[in-house]
Amino acid sequence: MPIVGAALVPKPAAHRPADPRPVIGSGPALIGLGLLAVSTAGPGTPYPLYASRLLAVPAGTGRSMPALIVGVVAALPARQAGLGPGLGTSARKIGAALAVAVAGTVLAGHGGLGTGTGPALRTVGAVVLAATVAVVAGPRDPAPGAERDMPTDPVPEESGAGPVR
Hints:
Layout: H1 2-7, H2 21-38, H3 47-54, H4 56-75, H5 84-109, H6 113-137
Helix pairs in contact: 2-4, 2-6, 4-5, 5-6
C-alpha cells in the first residue's frame, strides 16, 4: 500500500514545489485520520470497511516518505547529502517508538487490550494530527537555496580527526 501512496506524490523532477511541507504533511494527516477511523471499529464492523480504514495508514506513509527524504537531502549541504536518508529513517523510527509508547500507556490506563484499543488509537491519531499541523504551520526556510549556517572549514589537525573530505 505504501507504493500506491507514493504513486500519488508529484515527481520531484516534474514538479518541485517551493515548499514541500503540504505534500509531506498530507501523509501524516492521512495516517492520523486512518487511526481515528480504525478506532471506531467494533466487533460488528464489516471487514472490508475495517480494511479500507486501516489501509489509510500505509497509504499516508507512502505519500509522505519520498517527499520527506527529498526534503531532508535538499536541506543538507552537498558534502553531507548522504546523511539524508538515514536521518529520515531515524526520524520515522523514533516517531514509531513514541507512538508505541503512547499507545501502551493509554492501553495500560484503560484496562488493557480489550477496552483500551479504541482510546489508544484515538490518542495516537490525535498526536499524529497535532504534529502534522506543527510541521505544516511551522517556521519557513528563510530562502530556498540560501547558504546554510554550517561550518565549511575542515576540522583542525590538532583534534586528531583530520580534515573532512
